[in-house]
Amino acid sequence: MENTKKKGLLDRLKSSRVLRVMFGRKIIVVCAVLILVMVLVAIFAPVIAPYDPNKDDLYNVLKGCSAEHWLGTDSNGRDVLSRIIYGARVSFTVGLVAVLISSVIGMALGLISGVAGGVVDSVIMRIMDAMMAVPMLILALFLGAILGQGLFNVCLAIGISMVPQYARITRGQVLSVRNADYVTAGTLCGASRVRNTLVHVFPNCLSANIVTMTASLGGAILAEANLSFLGMGISPPTASWGAMVSGGYKYLSNQPVIAIAPGIAIMIVVLCFNMCGDALRDALDPKLRGTLGNGSKKRRKATKGV
Amino acid sequence: MKKISRRNFLKAAGLAMAAVGLTACGSSSSSSTAASAGGAASAAPTSGPKMGGTLRFAYGSPIATPGYTPRASGNAAVFYLNLAYDNLFTYDVDGNRVPRLATEWVFDEAEPSITWTLREGVQFADGEPFNAEAVKANIEEYQANNRTEVANIASCEVIDDTHIKMVLAQVNSSTLESVGFFVYYMSPKAIANPSSLDAGTCGTGPFQLSEFENNAYAIYTRNDNYWEEGKPYLDSVEITVISEPTTMSTAFQAGEYDIISVGDMSPMIKQELTGAGIYIEERNTNGVGIETVGLIPNSAIDSPWADARVRRAMCYAIDMDAINAAFMMGTAQLTDQWAVPGAVTYNDELTHFTYNPERAKELLAEAGYADGFDTKINAISSLSDMMTAIGNMLTEVGIRCQINQVDAATQNQLMLEGTWEGLMPHYATVSPDLGLYMGRHLDANGAYYAPGIQHPEKEMELLEAIRGCVDETEKHELEKELQAAIYDAETGSCLFGRPLFINSASSFKYDYVIDDFSRMSFSASWDLSGCWLNL
Amino acid sequence: MPNLLKMIGKRIVQSCITILLVTLFVFFLIQLVPGNPVANYLGASATPEQIEYYTHLYGYDRPVIVQYLSWIGGLFRGTMGQSISYQSEIADILLPRLMVTLSMVVPAFIIGTVTGVLLGIVSALNRGKWLDSVISFFANIGVSMPMFWLGMMGMLVLGLRLHWLPTSGYVPMERDFGQWLSHMIMPILVMSLGVNAGFLRLTRSSMLEVIRQDYVTTARAKGVPKNAIIMKHQLRNSLIPIVTVMGSRLGTMVGSTVLIENLFVIPGLGSVMMNGISSRDFMLVANGVLVISIFVALCNLMVDILYGIIDPRTR
């Protein structure tokens, strides 16, 4: 067990076993391909989209599906399909940036907390507890109200509200490896505390965090949709799936496709991220278990993030 | 001083309602249903009102204090207040004042004062008599709450039980309306013990509050002490607050409500309900309490908007017909000034803004912005689609707009402090009497928008002249002059930017709801004392 | 057992600190939200004098720290303060609404947990078979849908098209239980679906984890019947991670009532919080968060006790 632990995460990912387990199920391959396709669609949106997503056509609003507009037009006469294609950019950006913000801040806090211990640890973890005691959606709503709207502000609001889970997981991991032989060895060899932390402790926290990151990509995309529904999402006219669903609610009985189509887009992307996240966890899990199986407390930390 | 008896008023309103019912349902087969319902409303000799039943109403606006009326301000509160409370007078279908708790009133310009003759034999729900002392206590309570409506009353003199004289601090023609319509009378016993009004009511109205959950529902039950013999006919009235129009309309069509209120900003829903052909639409026709939505630039901050030519350029760049077609399904009533077309304060002679992007570009170039400039439109989410379309139009002529979506509270803050950058929606009550309604925005000390606009001398002088003017005809002339000074397309100062459309609301009901008089006297009111369900 | 009591005692102290931190955190965070509660309450016809009068009446002109301390002091005297937008004592607004929310969240939680755990067991026992794939797939779809979107679809299909259920609204349980139930079925089902899928995934993975543990293999080798193994060893041990997340799940559910209550027009805690935020009724929002965090803390405490009972190692 100790041996495998010493290997970096990349080595583990590279090892054929992980990939074989992960992509052993066809559905995961399908999901991965779908994500790839969506990412490509987002990147090449200007090439793929049949229309300018923000071009109004005020005498042609709320038209149903037709040969010119496959998914019809919205309240401003904009092409719904083009907006969904461009909306992929927003969803992926929110997902990635929010997860990046939360994981970087969260991991940093978790590392500091775990390594420093004592008062610093208590202070950080009590703050994290306080943040976790407020449901994530409400916290994000608050932050959204403070920061105002806009793509980055929404990412920041969602990102900050997800910080505590990373901090907790990282801290748990740090505590579990802090006294492992190779870390002690590093200290004995005269490595500085910072270096020792970065070189020996940090890589061991990554795999658990990566599983959480994959899972929370979907969560962040849903969070953006939720905020949009509550009127605190991304500013118009930017096409965002969440805003499209809540905007389409008004026309649900006349032109349901306006609300249904972006809802399905959200579902597919989140579903694919969740499935891949699960598969990745399954693939990495037997090795993680070695570090978790020997104490109930540590197990709790690991499962909290689920 | 024209006196209209209550019976005549009801007859007029009933006929008008039948007419509204007819127009609402058009010439489709459903018009017969509407007509028969209307007919029942005005004549109904065969069946007569049926007693009992509960009227279920879904409404978009909550009320925080249904009981303590001095804290229930704003037009949206009137639907609630109407049920449990009465005012001194109300309006008929033509906008004339008609008696309610007062039977007669005299406005003395010389003193200045208003003397009211009060209705006899009226009791509050708790059995207390309604008399001059009660009126005095209410006016003082409103003054203690700093309500602007009663600010001009210097003192109240009780003459006898049924006569009271209100001495005014200065001549102001709007005081009569403020005091007569916007003060709702509570029992003096309840005023002495205001906590009894936290979740209850104690007025002279046909119903009194029996169950209340703020922002959720309010249930009113029959007031057995009501002053009109034999009324009300209904046992109870349930108001449910639903802020989302789609949800409301869905529930209404599923039969969960008998009557609902739908705003002009939900044209799809209105069209769907009208198109169904089985519901009756009721709409205000006298213009009392009507609001407009416009687009107002911040001219107080140092920016291109400080130049009137830039403001006029904006007005020329907006294609209102396209906006109307897309967002109001062509049903919006447009206006180009602080009045509903046809109102006494409406100026027919001023030059209109037309959709003319070339003229807009010329004006921008004249003002030194030939290359355009960057600005913002601050809008709440319910208006953001429309504002996006307008932003695109403005961008076409060089006024490059970015949409800044804000929530309602932030919007209020921006209005109040005048700190919005660029443009924001302008909500204005355009009832006649510019001294009162426009004054709230134009006056340098006005509460809303005022800190965000310029206050040029010419407009301010006109405003003062209007406020001091007692002669109606002369006042209307001054008001039209003020309209031209601000809204004329060639010479106006364009302080309030572009008025876009009149934003009112309709009630939709099933045909078995008879005599509810929704929106007849005031755009957000009803009179359920004679309402019954023909089930 | 003394260990357990000690642990509980320690957790209570910790929870109190957390709650205190939450109050501090929320109160100061709220001050950063742009907007003025008084202006919002008074509306467009307000005069500057009125605004000043109410600002003073509600104490919004005092320094933030004084406002905070007087709020906390008030809590110890049994008052949460006055709500400006609702014009009444905040406890009188929040507590009845908390009951409404709980009457929705608790059944949803129970339904979601029970079905989730059962399906998770079925799924784990059939690992790799088609049944497992089908269950997993639907569970994943369940957590991947925006909750309000699912609610919209239900509203349309079950309410407007089929007329089986009312589309929205709320009737108090004590007024008419049948009506209450018919209004609550849809929100409860929508909410329970998210919990169901979460617990299903958790149960499945935790069952699979336990299956591979040595003692299960030993028991099998000893010839203990399969069902007995499931009931006695696997389930009990698989429950541990499920119990640990129950507290936070309940918290998340209370949070998501903001969406559900807005969509279905239910006068609960979520909708009152949303109204509070949009009307900038700072005191109402701060107290709302306080109530939620106390609720979450209580749940976590119960979880810890349960945990101590289920997992003998903590004793």
Automatic annotation (TrEMBL), chain A:
<dbReference type="InterPro" id="IPR050366">
    <property type="entry name" value="BP-dependent_transpt_permease"/>
</dbReference>
<keyword id="KW-1133">Transmembrane helix</keyword>
<dbReference type="Pfam" id="PF00528">
    <property type="entry name" value="BPD_transp_1"/>
</dbReference>
<dbReference type="GO" id="GO:0055085">
    <property type="term" value="P:transmembrane transport"/>
</dbReference>
<dbReference type="InterPro" id="IPR025966">
    <property type="entry name" value="OppC_N"/>
</dbReference>
<feature type="transmembrane region" description="Helical">
    <location>
        <begin position="27"/>
        <end position="49"/>
    </location>
</feature>
<dbReference type="InterPro" id="IPR035906">
    <property type="entry name" value="MetI-like_sf"/>
</dbReference>
<feature type="domain" description="ABC transmembrane type-1">
    <location>
        <begin position="88"/>
        <end position="277"/>
    </location>
</feature>
<keyword id="KW-0472">Membrane</keyword>
<feature type="transmembrane region" description="Helical">
    <location>
        <begin position="132"/>
        <end position="160"/>
    </location>
</feature>
<dbReference type="GO" id="GO:0005886">
    <property type="term" value="C:plasma membrane"/>
</dbReference>
<feature type="transmembrane region" description="Helical">
    <location>
        <begin position="257"/>
        <end position="280"/>
    </location>
</feature>
<dbReference type="InterPro" id="IPR000515">
    <property type="entry name" value="MetI-like"/>
</dbReference>
<comment type="similarity">
    <text>Belongs to the binding-protein-dependent transport system permease family.</text>
</comment>
<feature type="transmembrane region" description="Helical">
    <location>
        <begin position="96"/>
        <end position="120"/>
    </location>
</feature>
From TrEMBL, chain B:
<dbReference type="Pfam" id="PF00496">
    <property type="entry name" value="SBP_bac_5"/>
</dbReference>
<dbReference type="InterPro" id="IPR030678">
    <property type="entry name" value="Peptide/Ni-bd"/>
</dbReference>
<dbReference type="InterPro" id="IPR039424">
    <property type="entry name" value="SBP_5"/>
</dbReference>
<dbReference type="GO" id="GO:0042597">
    <property type="term" value="C:periplasmic space"/>
</dbReference>
<dbReference type="GO" id="GO:0015833">
    <property type="term" value="P:peptide transport"/>
</dbReference>
<feature type="signal peptide">
    <location>
        <begin position="1"/>
        <end position="18"/>
    </location>
</feature>
<dbReference type="GO" id="GO:1904680">
    <property type="term" value="F:peptide transmembrane transporter activity"/>
</dbReference>
<dbReference type="InterPro" id="IPR000914">
    <property type="entry name" value="SBP_5_dom"/>
</dbReference>
<dbReference type="GO" id="GO:0043190">
    <property type="term" value="C:ATP-binding cassette (ABC) transporter complex"/>
</dbReference>
<dbReference type="InterPro" id="IPR006311">
    <property type="entry name" value="TAT_signal"/>
</dbReference>
<dbReference type="Pfam" id="PF10518">
    <property type="entry name" value="TAT_signal"/>
</dbReference>
<keyword id="KW-0732">Signal</keyword>
<protein>
    <submittedName>
        <fullName>ABC transporter substrate-binding protein</fullName>
    </submittedName>
</protein>
<feature type="domain" description="Solute-binding protein family 5">
    <location>
        <begin position="98"/>
        <end position="441"/>
    </location>
</feature>
<dbReference type="InterPro" id="IPR019546">
    <property type="entry name" value="TAT_signal_bac_arc"/>
</dbReference>
Automatic annotation (TrEMBL), chain C:
<keyword id="KW-1133">Transmembrane helix</keyword>
<dbReference type="GO" id="GO:0055085">
    <property type="term" value="P:transmembrane transport"/>
</dbReference>
<dbReference type="Pfam" id="PF00528">
    <property type="entry name" value="BPD_transp_1"/>
</dbReference>
<feature type="transmembrane region" description="Helical">
    <location>
        <begin position="12"/>
        <end position="33"/>
    </location>
</feature>
<keyword id="KW-0472">Membrane</keyword>
<feature type="transmembrane region" description="Helical">
    <location>
        <begin position="180"/>
        <end position="202"/>
    </location>
</feature>
<comment type="similarity">
    <text>Belongs to the binding-protein-dependent transport system permease family.</text>
</comment>
<feature type="transmembrane region" description="Helical">
    <location>
        <begin position="284"/>
        <end position="310"/>
    </location>
</feature>
<protein>
    <submittedName>
        <fullName>Peptide ABC transporter</fullName>
    </submittedName>
</protein>
<dbReference type="Pfam" id="PF19300">
    <property type="entry name" value="BPD_transp_1_N"/>
</dbReference>
<feature type="transmembrane region" description="Helical">
    <location>
        <begin position="137"/>
        <end position="160"/>
    </location>
</feature>
<dbReference type="GO" id="GO:0005886">
    <property type="term" value="C:plasma membrane"/>
</dbReference>
<dbReference type="InterPro" id="IPR000515">
    <property type="entry name" value="MetI-like"/>
</dbReference>
<keyword id="KW-1003">Cell membrane</keyword>
<keyword id="KW-0812">Transmembrane</keyword>
